[in-house]
Amino acid sequence: MAALARQFAAYIGVSLAALGVHYGLLATLVEVGRADPVRAALAGYLAGAVVSYGLNRRLTYASARPHAEATWRFGIVAAIGFGLTWLIMAGLTRGLGLPYLAAQVMATGVVVFWNFLGHRMWTFAARPVPALPEEASGLR
């Protein structure tokens, strides 16, 4: 349990860096560029994902999974998080009229747990070691 807590703490540290990029781009696009908050949130999510991949691979999960495997897995987990962000942001800003930053905080609260678990259990998980056939192992 302590190892999981340490890993989650590392994930939160990496997430703060990625969120800085995400929220910075979101606010810039909305406040300066007058962009739609939902689209700006999605652009921020993508920019934060780039930061997240590199730092999580190295610092949080210390993964030896080859990039050729980890990147497409990361992309699938991130795409689901992207969809969750879109649903939550659209529902809260367009549907309920909440301010975009409040909606983004709520979306982040949901997506951070999805991403942590998806990456821990699938993207960066250790590759399974194939079992030896009965003949090779000497067992029958």
UniProtKB/TrEMBL annotation:
Its main location: membrane. Residues 11-124 form the GtrA/DPMS transmembrane domain. One of its GO terms (cellular component) is plasma membrane. It holds the Pfam family GtrA_DPMS_TM. It is a multi-pass membrane protein. The chain crosses the membrane at residues 9-30, 42-59, 71-92, 98-117. One of its GO terms (biological process) is polysaccharide biosynthetic process. It is found in: Membrane. PANTHER family: PROPHAGE BACTOPRENOL-LINKED GLUCOSE TRANSLOCASE HOMOLOG. This is Polysaccharide synthesis protein GtrA. It comes from Methylobacterium tarhaniae. The lineage of its organism: Bacteria, Pseudomonadati, Pseudomonadota, Alphaproteobacteria, Hyphomicrobiales.
